[in-house]
Amino acid sequence: MTLLSSGQAxxxxxxxxxxxxxxxxxxxxxxxxxxxxxxxxxxxVKSRVNPVWRQLIALVLQILAAGLIxxxxxxxxxxxxxxxxxxxxxxxxxxxxxxxSAGRMEAVAELARALELGVxxxxxxxxxxxxxxERDATLxxxxxxxxxxxxxxxxELARQLGAEPIVVSDHLVDIDAEVRxxxxxxxxxxxxEVAASAGPGLPPEYAVRVxxxxxxxxxxxxxxxxxxxxALLGSGDVELPGGExxxxxxxxxxxxxxxxxxxxxxxxxxxxxxxxxxxxxxxLRPAKVWLVSDGNRYLEDVxxxxxxxxxxxxxxxxxxxxxxxxxxxxxxRVAPAGRVDAAAVFLDPPAQSGPFPPVGAADENEFTTWDxxxxxxxxxxxxxxxxxxxxxxxxxxxxxxxxxxTDSGPAIVAADDGTKALAIGFDLRSSxxxxxxxxPQLVYNILLWARADADAVAPGLARTTTEGVALDPSxxxxxTRLDADGVWVVExxxxxxxxLVPGVYEVEDRSGxxxxxxxxxxxxxAQFASGEAVLRAPETPLDESEGGPAGLLALVAFGLLxxxxxxxxx
Length: 570
Hints:
Layout: H1 6-25, H2 42-47, H3 52-86, E1 89-94, H4 104-115, E2 118-122, E3 126-129, H5 132-140, H6 151-160, E4 164-169, E5 178-181, E6 189-198, E7 206-214, E8 220-227, E9 232-240, E10 245-252, E11 259-265, E12 276-280, E13 287-292, H7 297-304, E14 309-314, E15 328-332, E16 343-347, E17 358-361, E18 369-370, E19 391-393, E20 401-406, E21 409-415, E22 421-424, H8 438-450, E23 463-464, E24 469-470, E25 477-481, E26 487-490, E27 496-497, E28 503-509, E29 512-519, H9 549-567
Parallel strand pairs: 1-2, 1-4, 4-5, 13-14, 13-15, 15-16, 16-22, 23-29
Antiparallel strand pairs: 2-3, 6-7, 7-10, 8-9, 8-11, 11-12, 17-19, 18-20, 20-21, 21-22, 24-27, 25-26, 25-28, 28-29
Helix pairs in contact: 1-3, 3-9
């Protein structure tokens, strides 16, 4: 309680000093009495002599004690002022994704109610609730977001509103403000990354890469499952040493759907939100092959046993330009009249036809040159191939690469620039090639060579919930959640839709339709700091201080009065 202002205390001190000086000057003097002899009082008179210096010291001590008492009253006023400032504290609440752990926001709400402080909640947006009614309503629906929190901006905003911030977070924040820890730490295993890719191999398949991290110190065993919207693809246990990451790659056959989710189960986890992660599946191009031939049993049989291959035989007279999903066309002893957009293999092409038209027959039927550095001959040995007749192929504009040749000229030529083309200058039926173990490998290499451009590019890593879904700001769009219910209509001018939870979203705007996966922010994994958890209000309220200068002044004043009592004349 305030007794005196600083000016009033100074005036009181002056009045006290004046009174003490006046009393000193008007002190009662000793009376003079004449007696016949001093012998009876001589000893007692010595003990009652009052030197002036002792009187002056006593006066000074009295004035100092009065000044300290007045200063004590002023210090009490300063303490009261500090209590008023403390009533303007606010809690700046870390509303980032890691605060979704059980008990953390509940601890924050309990602290805010106990201290009766306003709150500034920093999630994807900053929410201010300083008045009691606003604070109570906010605390009832207090919930952390799914992204990171801009605590620096929230602290600056609190100070702009005239309040001193107290940051409440689940980790020690490097910020110019008092920080208190909310909630207790615990084990946390997270899925840091899920990425799906597809290669040109046969059969077409996905490779799903999953990175897990155990943020605790103790080993953990988790059950990892991969699923789509319609089915569980598989699951298994993964052992994770404490504080380490583990990477797993799973190969999968093509599945229906555009996305996949990896989930963790079977373990105790303080932050379940990072136990699931999503990835967009690239489009797998099917391996479709056309065989334009009057009949070639050797080639038909070997194509029939290739895994994941869709083969269609077409009579030369029925051949039409293939659709875009056909990746390879075999022309057996025939050639098309027009251009072929797909990769093509010309087996014993007719004269003056194909990209490498024959210009005559070789003088000898023996190959003398092989280019085994080309992918077509990887794992293929054809040094002693027997052939009845070999055609010499031309190389127009030097666009071809000679794979095999005789002394008379090129016999097998490939072109990799632009549309892929391969010409083999002999009839398979007139050679022993189909009877060798190299023949299936050569056909498989041809299929991989033709499908090299079909290697589906893996979508980039999923965006974080902090980054949100990117949109074309030039026009409005629609965002639909695919793994759960939810539709957002976005107005023109919006470049990012934030505040979303981890999941898969379909985005439709002027730039097209696409799927986007949002993941838990990696920086929010395992945010557990050491320190006492804020589970209740502190025992010492913010507006009370213990000890301090006021108590010291009172103690010194009391000591001065004791000294004055000892030196004052009696």
